[in-house]
Amino acid sequence: MKICLLGDPGVGKTSLVRRFAYNTFERHYIPSPGVTVSSKTVVVARDGRPIPLTLVLWDPVSAQKTPLPYAAFLDSAQTVVLVADATRPQSGLSLPGYVEQVQRWNPQAKYGVAVTKIDALAAVTNADPQLATALEAHVQRLRALANALQSTLHMTSALLDVEVNALFRSIAVGSALERASE
Ligand SMILES: Nc1nc2c(ncn2[C@@H]2O[C@H](COP(=O)(O)OP(=O)(O)OP(=O)(O)O)[C@@H](O)[C@H]2O)c(=O)[nH]1
Ligand SMILES: [Mg+2]
Questions:
Q1: Mean pLDDT, range 85-94, rounded to an integer
Q2: What's the number of domains the chain is made of?
């Protein structure tokens, strides 16, 4: 199944994929060019039987840098993962615009919402206590967006390997259940 990640530059899309597919983490920020496609096979249960499901992860350059060929990236994607940075409230603002594009090009798509870098929250709010309220409101907005999209929200850290597997597994399990009911 094809999964496409969308989010602002530097929110941690590539880091989620790296952690999930290769179990590595890179501190050095290398902005992604074009699109990187990775895959990982997970085993999920369907009708009580284990079945392998290959997740093909599309990690495109951020649309804020290069206009995305949404038609090509979203075509046949079952799920779009919307990604926002827990430490930057403005990183959630573009997500409704991405949703509009997804609904335009691939109205059948399901969603996941990932909030990244939760390991860095304490350091950021200690340095700037005023930011704490804005960050809470940011996560509340993301939670509301996830609810509106009938999606789950995962509070992740690619650095510490928190909820990264859970994010992609929940997408795989959702897809397997759906196919089982077809
Ligand atoms: N502390 C911390 N830093 C992270 C985490 N995930 C990513 N980063 C850092 O955030 C920066 C950007 O991460 P990327 O994964 O390259 O972000 P991206 O969304 O792919 O960025 P673009 O490709 O430019 O759109 C890098 O320096 C990462 O090391 C995390 O869970 N915790
Ligand atoms: Mg990237």
A1: 96
A2: 1
